[in-house]
Amino acid sequence: MHRRIVPTLVLLLALVVVGTAFPTTAIHASNPPTPWWAWHLKVDFPNKAPRVLYTTYSAVGSPATVTSWNQTDITARCTVQGNLSYDAAGYALFDGASFIRCQLPVKPAVTSCNKGGFWAAADVRLPTKSSNNPIFTASNNNFWLSLPGNGTTSQTQLKLAGQLYQSPGWSIGSASGSRQVLMGANGSDMVAVTNFFNGLGFNWLSFMGSWQGFYQMLPANKMGHMVQAPASTAQLGLTGNLWADSQYIYIGHNPHTGHYFEGSLRTGEIDPPGCSSGG
Fold first, then answer.
1. Which domains, and CATH codes, for the chain?
2. What is the reported pTM?
3. Which phi-psi region, left, alpha or beta, contains residue 201 (left: φ > 0; alpha: ψ -120 to 50)?
């Protein structure tokens, strides 16, 4: 006489065998990277008038991966003081008394602004006389980009969070010749972010030509400078925080020093460091 095996017992034995053959592995969820956000401002002069585009974006990691973005034309938030004229090549002519002031949109509260890349750049023609040549200035004096020169040579100066970075001198060329300058840090993030937005047709730093190779290899503890053409580069010690914020941006004027730009500007860009609320 055979005794019938209870089905429940068979199922339990099967589970024991399977568990022995394939031990359970603990799964540990990794912490997701902390997101950060940044803003970018670009000014140019199509149709002989200023156009100012303001882009905010969120990103994670380094090199940065952009996860979301929004672009706003803030030209209506800008006022022109004095008289600007324009040439056929798309340059705005600043006469040493004119400038543009733009009110930036309100930004969220943050606790840390040391993420991603940073850059300030301009496509300019400089005067053949001594001039301070401010390009971008923050209303709170937190940062500025200027190209002071003596009419023959110039120097790129970037003030950022109390630290002044100065490039070696470079020739301004002729009065009708243009120069393109770029100063920035965290080069791999600069390349990643601009590649993303240029894939959308934004043409960020397109006036700089072949800049990405130099910045891709820029060490994390260096501020990089490039001027062209012809192209020359320099690495400067990165000694301060990459913090940059302001309520207003002045283009062609530094209200803290009283200096005005006396030259021509076709395109300018600033992209301060990314910020987060969690460190």
1. 36-276 (2.60.120.200)
2. 0.86
3. left
